[in-house]
Amino acid sequence: MDTAEIVGFTAGTIGTLAFLPQAYKIHKTNNTDGLSAATALCFLVALALWTAYGVLTNSASLIATNAFQIAVQLYIVRRIQKNALAPPARLEALGFRAFV
């Protein structure tokens, strides 16, 4: 493995580790308040394009790390969307039920 790929895997790993705590917190608390769906989707598209670039340049580090980050980001985007469609939890806690 050449030096460029080692740097690529290192950068990709650090980038992935940066989002894992957020995904873990969302999983544990089911709270996505304050997260922007538009930003998450833009980042998801950027990751897909970097993965495509990795395929075109035959870069294992770009392909592997971005593919893993796509999985993490998809989870975050899906939870943001799911929570945006859910009735407000505060009303349910007060005994109100939403009619959907």
SSE order and pairing:
Elements: H1 3-29, H2 37-57, H3 60-85, H4 89-93
Count every beta strand, where a strand is a DSSP E run of 2 or more residues.
0
Q: So what's the overall shape?
A: elongated
How many individual domains?
1
Strand content: under 5%
Termini Cα gap: 55 Å
Q: State the CATH class.
A: Mainly Alpha
CATH topology: Monooxygenase
- Which blocks of ≥5 consecutive residues have pLDDT under 50? none
Q: Which structural class is indicated by helix and strand composition?
A: mainly alpha
Query: Mean pLDDT, rounded to whole units?
Result: 88
The portion of residues assigned to helices is over 70%
> What is the CATH architecture term?
Up-down Bundle
Radius of gyration over all CA atoms, rounded? 17 Å
Oligomer: single chain
- The total of helices stands at 4
How many strands, what sense, and barrel or not for the largest sheet? none
